[in-house]
């Protein structure tokens, strides 16, 4: 009587058991929308609890708008708007500072991401069965909340200093929403920068090199009419000028369609380009 020896194939050796009892490899790692939203919610809660345990991390969002509006209204307001015209300058500079708040909060996101990698926090997240994008989106959601707090404090100070709404409350909310949307898009740039640079100090240094020309080469602090031609051309295409003009006209009255569409276009373009790059960099960062 002959015996037959059955040799298992390499596939059988690696994956014992009936194939029907195992998930298909293609399905592994797939995360549905509901699960993704649940992961984002959990990570948002984790980041919010971090802020609760470290209230000092809110100092920039709370103090920065107060310092900036007092500095520019009382130090530069008289020189820019003329002596005795501080009230008029408040209505000019406050909407512009809303754009500036978004950029400064966005810079903090890149520094925080870089620091989290140094501490090994992000390595733990990458070992978990969660979408890589959910980690970054949760970070943006929390920072958007900080941006909203900073903008609210800025507007509160503006009202104390004489800010007036010449349109309606809905227009004011539209200006806030526009600033939030553009600020959220900028966060993707700084997240990518935080994932690329080796140290938090390098992130801050490069960010300041980008922020300073954009902020001061814009219509945030002064009308560009007195600027030299080459700088005025840069100002006209500066997205911060578009955001400042849109917020200013939404609050004070004036044409808004062009500025609003320019801001939304910039926000969409920045997000579409940098968000996939940031997620890919997050997956591959060592």
Write the layout of secondary structure elements.
Blueprint (H helix, E strand, L loop, with lengths): L9 H5 L18 H21 L5 H23 L4 H34 L1 H6 L5 H30 L7 H28 L3 H17 L12 H9 L1 H14 L4 H28 L2
Helix pairs in contact: 2-6, 3-4, 3-6, 4-6, 4-7, 4-8, 4-10, 6-7, 7-10, 7-11, 10-11
Mean pLDDT: 82
* Span between termini: 60 Å
Low-confidence stretches: 1-28
Encode the helix/strand succession as letters: HHHHHHHHHHH
Task: Please report the total strand number as a whole number.
Answer: 0
Tell me the Rg in angstroms.
Answer: 25 Å
Estimate percent helicity: over 70%
Number of helices: 11
Structural class, by secondary structure, is mainly alpha
Kindly estimate the percentage of residues that lie in beta strands according to DSSP: under 5%
Judging from the principal axes of the Cα atoms, what is the shape? Answer: elongated
Q: What is the makeup of the main sheet?
A: none
